[in-house]
Amino acid sequence: MIQAADVAERLPFDRLVPALRSAFVSGAEVPTRHHHDVGAAGTLLLMPCWVDGGFLGVKVAGVFPGNRDHGMPSLHSTYLLCDATTGEQLAVLDGAELTRRRTIATAALAADYLARPNAQTLLVVGSGAVASLAAHAYSAIRPVEDVLVWNVRPAGAEALAAAMRDDGFDARAVTDLATAAAEADIISCATLATTPLLHGAWLRPGVHVDLVGSFRPDMREADDELVGTGSLFIDTMDAIEESGDLTQSLRDGALSAEDIRATLTGLCRGEHAGRRDAAEITVFKSVGTALTDLAAATVVYESVTGTSRG
Predict the structure, then answer these.
(1) What are the pLDDT digits (tens) for 233-272?
(2) Contact assessment for residue 99 and residue 73, using Cβ atoms and an 8 Å cutoff
(3) Do residues 247 and 160 touch, judged by C-beta distance below 8 A?
(4) Tell me: the pLDDT tens digits for 147-177?
(5) Which of 1, 35, 99, 298 is the most exposed place for a label (fewest CB within 10 A)?
């Protein structure tokens, strides 16, 4: 078992972001993932992926938002890595650490195409496992200098801002989300919200918004105006069926499928140029893909074993 600390050590963002870029360019076999509601408590996700002649992996993840009320993580996950030619089981990795790192690294990868080159002020919305890594991930692709942190529970924002300062960031907690959003060059929203937190009326020209949290139709982090105002990009086409940020706007007529500019694969392969000018508002919505799990697990395994399959 490759434990969380070892996964984290072997996935610095200056290594992980390029690995994800390569994975989106080369592609893989990614079957439709399984979603299973576990009563009203949570969601079970099964996410397989493989590359012919390379690795095969599957993640089993449970997302239980109510855990936060008991001081427990919302996500519990395990990743099984196998040989795609023989089926031999090669390693078991801590899936929670793998997931939070590949999730925010995917957002940073998209921002490398969509955020202004001189973006310096980052607003982090949320204070959970993924949000806590946002400053580290974005600083791998942009010159982040100032970090603002907002959370529905102010104490969470204060704690995360303090931890970021310990890591060398100029970070401070904020309580007025509208004002902070109007100051930001990049907004990274990583929550389990079911009603919009961010509003399009708050955005200034040139901002890039990253919506990480919503992965079910009943979850959303942004209002219709925000989703409809910006140039919209998504990680995979699954997003238009899985994320409430999109499904609800599509249902209400505030958004159409034709409004989506490109997927992350299209950006990485150069099929879309990304940001067009300094004033453009860009929005990236991700729901997660097993491709990124496999890419991250491959980096960890090859680092641990000292091997490479090229």
Answers:
(1) 999 998 888 888 898 988 888 888 889 999 999 999 999 9
(2) no
(3) no
(4) 999 999 999 999 999 999 999 999 999 999 9
(5) 1
Match 């196998």 to its residue by tokens. 82
Per-residue pLDDT, averaged over 192-213, amounts to: 94
104's CB contacts (< 8 A; 6+ apart) are 130, 133, 134, 137, 188, 190, 212
Angle, CA of 235, 241 and 243, to the nearest 5°:
65
Helical segments of the chain, H only: 4-9, 13-26, 95-114, 134-138, 154-166, 177-183, 224-229, 239-242, 244-252, 264-268, 290-305
**Which sign, positive or negative, has the C-alpha torsion 251, 257, 261, 267?**
positive
**3-class secondary structure, 186:** strand
Report the side by side order of strands in the sheet with 34-38: 34-38, 42-50, 55-63, 75-83, 89-94
With both helix axes pointing from N to C terminus, report the angle between 13-26 and 95-114 in degrees, rounded to the nearest 10: 80
Q: What is the pTM of this model?
A: 0.92
73 beta partners: none
List, for residues 111-132, the tens digit of each pLDDT value. 999 999 999 999 999 999 999 9
**Res 43: pLDDT:** 87
Backbone angles phi, psi at 183, to 5 degrees: -95, -15
Number of residues in the chain: 310
Beta carbons of 210 and 234 less than 8 angstroms apart: no
Phi then psi for residue 209, to 5 deg, are -115, 130
